[in-house]
Amino acid sequence: GENVEQHPSTLSVQEGDSAVIKCTYSDSASNYFPWYKQELGKGPQLIIDIRSNVGEKKDQRIAVTLNKTAKHFSLHITETQPEDSAVYFCAGRSAAGNKLTFGGGTRVLVKP
Amino acid sequence: DVKVTQSSRYLVKRTGEKVFLECVQDMDHENMFWYRQDPGLGLRLIYFSYDVKMKEKGDIPEGYSVSREKKERFSLILESASTNQTSMYLCASMGTNKNIQYFGAGTRLSVL
């Protein structure tokens, strides 16, 4: 089955700086890669996703890149703000089904 | 607005008790999921259901069972709770041919 690894597990950045979280996956058949953000006391919420036929996708201050050959994808947050402080999860989904396999999560702290 | 509701935010149970975690969604989604969330391990899939009365094992089904008698409700059952089932439990739902999983706020279960 799919295995998704995520790094780093914690990330502390100064407000205004950029944050980058990296994930690798094992199943070359995976074709969909979402990113979820979990704020304190809430369930995870989708913030951006990318399909395997696209190399990069951007939505305001967040972007995701995908390297299918190397089987890794990354989340980039620019001009970080205190409200970006949360736990972020990457995930991968095989073309075969509806199941997502999640990475271990990254706790991001944006210091004012 | 999309809503996934988990019946309890916090639950404390004794070893050996039978525990029911309830989840209700109001989006008429076919697919529902139960995950457990542990630090450093991300979200791990316990069971999922793609239709009423249908269920499939996820990655860590041992010690759990599920029930889906109605489309909007998906229950997770711990037949005989053990201390290693102390965790955060998250329910999610997803429409057919859609990608986004919508999560509830979670139930933090402590088994003493």
Q: What do you see in this structure?
A:
The complex is a heterodimer of chains A (112) and B (112). With 112 residues, chain A is mainly β. Chain A has strands at 4-7, 10-14, 19-25, 30-38, 45-51, 56-59, 62-67, 72-77, 86-94, 100-102, 106-111. In chain A, the strands form 2 sheets. In chain A, strands 2, 4, 5, 9, 10 and 11 form a 6-stranded mixed beta sheet that branches. A 5-stranded antiparallel beta sheet of chain A has the order 1-3-8-7-6, with no helix packed on it. Chain A is globular. Chain A starts with a strand and ends with a strand. The model of chain A has no long low-confidence stretch (mean pLDDT 94). Chain B has 112 residues and is mainly beta. Chain B has strands spanning 4-6, 10-13, 19-25, 31-38, 42-49, 56-57, 64-70, 73-78, 87-94, 102-103, 107-111. In chain B, the strands form 2 sheets. In chain B, strands 2, 4, 5, 6, 9, 10 and 11 form a 7-stranded mixed beta sheet that branches. Chain B has a 4-stranded antiparallel beta sheet with strand order 1-3-8-7, with no helix packed on it. In chain B, β4 (31-38) and β5 form a beta hairpin. Chain B is globular and about 40 Å long. Chain B starts with a strand and ends with a strand. The mean pLDDT of chain B is 94. At the A-B interface, β4, β5, β9 and β10 of A face β5 and β9 of B.
